[in-house]
Each structure stands twice: as structure tokens, then as C-alpha cells.
Design goal:
The structure is a homodimer. By secondary structure, chain A is mostly helical. Chain A is built from 6 helices and 2 strands. The two termini of chain A are 33 Å apart. Chain A binds a DNA duplex through helix 4.
Chain lengths: 151, 151
DNA sequence: CAGTCCATGTCAAAATATTGACATGAGTCC
DNA sequence: GGACTCATGTCAATATTTTGACATGGACTG
């Protein structure tokens, strides 16, 4: 018999999912007091890092659809944390910016998240951390469809 | 200024999310021809590995709520891939089992997923693979609330 | 035994996300 | 310029997931 039968516990894919779930849960708990969801935090963070991004770019950076990102953005705009012009300046894309309040909240939220990440990798040595990062990056690239190696 | 400001690209948490998203997308593509979603595949796999599991146990193993797992289970039962007694044998929990058809489909699906995982970690050495697995496990445990160190 | 606690399964409602479709502006190729 | 393609933003409909609440059966404790 062919042996695709290691238990899920021993599979990298399951370990990935489990770690991601644990991280998400921890972030959720930490951000709740600020009134932020993980998606909202990620949105603020990305905008803060790259002011003027379009909604589509944000969606790709957060691995969700444009439509669902738009809902998140709308909420942040209503809370005056993010500003977006109502009309497109140069093309069809609406550049998003943090308001001063958004910048402040993003800083506070990021401090909390940074703590969680630090706790998560606390038991790893510096070398192990960079290898973990490298391994995850390699996995991502291996699955990104640059497939199609040509003859 | 305090420096919680490495860009997301360099953060383990983001790398985790990204790798998980890539894996999920690849699995989705691979399983679509079989008429299975990732959640359905995971469900079949877990039941196959531990026949007689309760719905709540499955939900925990899949990192979703009991309610949302129930929706998945219902679909699998209607397709005669999973069987569950309508009344609880010993306690309140309803043990889930694979039907013969479910077992066959689970095998086929698992072969596809195993291929994807193999592709994902293809560029890593055996040592790097086990270190990646160990690193992910360590991260998970570090976030699992055994917190509460006592005085 | 009564009382308490905990896990399970389920219902209903709400939040969240995706798919599909469409209009618009920009770039490209002829 | 005209036709094409492509990316963006948005609307509507659908699917998926979570939250909150409740009843039930078992275990544990007094």
C-alpha cells in the first residue's frame, strides 16, 4: 500500500494551521480591549507601512477579497481611523491614509501584537527564528504558481 | 522611540499567515475536482484517523466552532460519505464514522494533499523539515494558555 | 439523594467572507 | 483614433462562520 498515512499531528500543513490558529486567537484576545479585530489591525498596519495603498493592494496583502476588505475599510473610515478620498486622484484607485487617531491606535495595537509574537518565538534561538522565517518563506514560494517550468 | 516597526514582511506572524494562505489556496484548487472543500477534506481525514470522534472533538481538531463544523458534517452525511447515529449510544456525543465511499474519497483526496505538502517542502532538507515542524510546534505551545504562572 | 459543574448537540441571529457581475479609467497594439 | 486587455471599486446574492442561548446526559460533591 502507498503510505500517504502519517497522522495529521506529524504533518507540516497541520502544524501550520495550528500555529496560525493559535496566533490568531491570541491576537484576537489582545486586540479586543482596543475594539479592533485582527483584520482591522492588519489593515491599519499595512496602511501605516505603505501610505496611499489601494484597496486591492490591501486585499492582496491580507489574503482576502477586495469586497470583504472594503467592509473592513468602511468601518475604519467611520471611526475616523482611516481616510480615503471620495474621488480618485489620478486613476481608479483610492489611496488610503491613516488619520492621526489611526496612527496612534495602530501604534498601540502593534505594541500588543509585537509582544505576542515575541512570546511566540521566545523559546527559539536567534538562529532558529531566522530559519523558521526562511522555512515559511520557502514554503510560500514553493506553492506560489510560478509553476510551469518550461521545456 | 520604541521600535516595534519591522515591516510585516520580516515578521514571523505574517510569514505564518502567508504560508497558510498559500497552502489553503493550493489545497482548494486540488480538491475542487473532487467536489471537496478544505474543511470537508479535513473532516474526512480526522474521522478516518480517529473513527468514532464526536463533533466537538472534530471542531477542536479543525479550529472552528461546533456549529460551523456541524454544517460541514451535515453535507458529508447527505453525500453518504460520513455516518452518524441519530441517537447517542452511550453519552450525549454522536460518534462519526466514514462510509466505504467516504473512505475511498478520503484516500484520493489525501493523495492530492500529500502531493501538495511534498511540493511545499521540496526545497528543504530532511533536517530543515523537522526543524520547521519543531519550530511551528514550539510556537503553538508558547501561545497555548498554560499561561498563568503562579506566585 | 439534591446540587453543581461540565461537555455535547442544536437552534436562531448576526457578523464575516466569497462569488459573480458590472462600469470605469489606463495602458497597449494595430 | 479604435479595439483590446487589465486593474480597480462597487453592488447584489450567496456561503460560511461565529456568537449567544438552551436542553440534556454524565460526573463529581456535599
Amino acid at each position: 500500500m502507498s503510505p500517504p498515512h502519517p497522522p495529521v499531528e506529524a504533518r507540516v500543513g497541520y502544524a501550520l494551521k495550528r500555529a496560525q490558529a493559535a496566533l490568531r486567537a491570541a491576537m484576537d484576545d489582545a486586540l479586543r480591549p482596543l475594539g479592533l479585530t485582527v483584520a482591522q489591525y492588519a489593515c491599519l498596519q499595512l496602511i501605516g507601512e505603505r501610505p496611499g495603498v489601494s484597496g486591492s493592494e490591501l486585499a492582496r496583502g491580507m489574503f482576502v477579497s477586495r469586497q470583504s476588505l472594503n467592509v473592513v475599510l468602511r468601518g475604519l473610515q467611520e471611526r475616523e481611523l482611516v481616510h480615503r478620498p471620495s474621488t480618485a486622484p489620478q486613476a481608479r484607485s483610492l489611496p488610503a491614509e491613516l488619520t492621526p487617531a489611526g496612527r496612534r491606535l495602530a501604534r498601540r495595537a502593534d505594541a500588543l501584537v509585537a509582544d505576542i509574537e515575541a512570546q511566540m518565538i521566545a523559546v527559539l534561538s536567534a538562529r532558529q527564528r531566522s530559519q523558521l522565517l526562511a522555512g515559511l518563506t520557502a514554503c510560500t514560494e514553493a506553492l506560489s504558481n510560478d509553476a510551469a517550468w518550461k521545456p
